[in-house]
Fold this sequence. Notes:
The chain is an alpha+beta fold. Helix content is 32%, strand content 18%. It has helices at 3-12, 52-65, and strands at 17-21, 36-40, 45-47. A hairpin with a 4-residue loop joins strand 2 and strand 3.
Amino acid sequence: MNIWDFVYGSLINNKQVVLIVVVDSKGSSPGRAGFKMAINSVGEMNGSIGGGFMEHNLVESCKEMMKFPFSPFI
């Protein structure tokens, strides 16, 4: 599934979504600029930012962040 279809599908089903985008990388980082990953509030994921420790930590941070109510209008 295309990442944008995943984001859209999550949003129309009232699930929060976090989009993670690699904007720059240096050295041996597995993720390269432009890699994208989305995770929704029920833990479904699409895409990858290169895997490994960094991706795992960011996914866990996103899950924690989505535990709290969010309103884009506050």
